[in-house]
Automatic annotation (TrEMBL):
Residues 34-87 form the Cupin type-2 domain. Gene3D superfamilies: Jelly Rolls. It holds the Pfam family Cupin_2. PANTHER family: H2HPP ISOMERASE. This is Cupin domain protein. It comes from Aliiroseovarius sediminilitoris. InterPro entries: Bacilysin_H2HPP_isomerase, Cupin_2, KdgF, RmlC-like_jellyroll, RmlC_Cupin_sf. SUPFAM superfamilies: RmlC-like cupins.
Length: 103
């Protein structure tokens, strides 16, 4: 159980920090409906994403990829990325170093 709050990040999307340390952070992003989006963005953190449940179409720079349960990938620092939910589900993201803006 985590003591971190659930935060809305957009329509039908929430995030919750699961654990953190100055050098790493684990965050759950929950998408409640088809079509919910994780807006295109970039950040200096290296990010790994694991699809716990659902299906998503990710934009990673100039590429698109569709992912589902059990898939994982790494997003390099400063690469513009985002996703569209194809089936409701949860993404588990790890960031290094931690995202202080999420605290």
């Amino acid at each position: 159980m985590t003591d971190f709050p659930v935060v809305s990040t957009g329509e039908n999307v929430t995030r919750q920090v699961l654990s953190d340390h100055p050098s790493m952070m684990v965050v759950a992003f929950r998408f409640a409906s088809k079509g919910a989006t994780g807006a295109l963005h970039n950040h200096p953190h290296v990010q790994s994403t694991y699809v716990e449940a659902g299906r998503f179409r990710f934009t990673l720079g100039d590429e698109e990829k569709e992912v589902g349960p059990g898939d994982s990938f790494v997003i390099p620092s400063d690469l513009t990325h985002g996703c569209v939910c194809l089936e409701p589900g949860t993404l588990i993201d790890c960031f290094t170093p931690r995202r202080d803006d999420f605290l």
